[in-house]
């Protein structure tokens, strides 16, 4: 997240996400869209960027996915990508996101 640690703590309590192991805030490391921000997670899990679906709601998410080669999904209420960076799919809402994720096949 590009959010601060305090914002993450509030959101994680409200959404019962306290058990998530890896959260990088703007205070804890290199922020998006710098591709190096993904290195700790990819190294820990033994993944390459091609193995990851990056879901986001802002330009920095698309720039990060583009720079690393990750599959990118933008969640935007219009269902249209308003940014000048391509993505693989635009989901209007979380229902559309989950439906699309279920259709993805990974070899």
Walk me through this protein's architecture.
- By secondary structure, this protein is α/β, with parallel strands linked by helices.
- The protein is 35% helix and 11% strand.
- It has four helices and three strands, in the order ααβαββα.
- The chain has helices at residues 5-14, 39-45, 59-68, 94-103; strands at residues 53-56, 71-75, 89-91.
- A three-stranded parallel β-sheet has the order 1-2-3, sandwiched between helices.
- The two termini are 28 Å apart.
- The mean pLDDT is 91.
Quickly describe the structure:
The protein has 107 residues and is α/β, with parallel strands linked by helices. The protein contains 4 helices and 3 strands; from the N terminus they run ααβαββα.
Fold blueprint:
Elements: H1 5-14, H2 39-45, E1 53-56, H3 59-68, E2 71-75, E3 89-91, H4 94-103
Parallel strand pairs: 1-2, 2-3
Structure classification? alpha/beta
| Number of beta-strand segments | 3
Largest sheet: 3 strands, parallel
The helix count comes to 4
Share of β-strand residues = 5-15%
Radius of gyration equals: 14 Å
Poorly predicted segments: none
Q: Level of helix content?
A: 25-40%
Average residue pLDDT: 91
Shape: globular
Question: Distance N terminus to C terminus?
Answer: 28 Å
Sequence of secondary-structure elements: HHEHEEH
- With strands numbered from the N-terminus, the spatial order across the biggest sheet is 1-2-3
What descriptive keywords fit this protein?
single chain, 107 residues, alpha/beta, 3-stranded parallel β-sheet
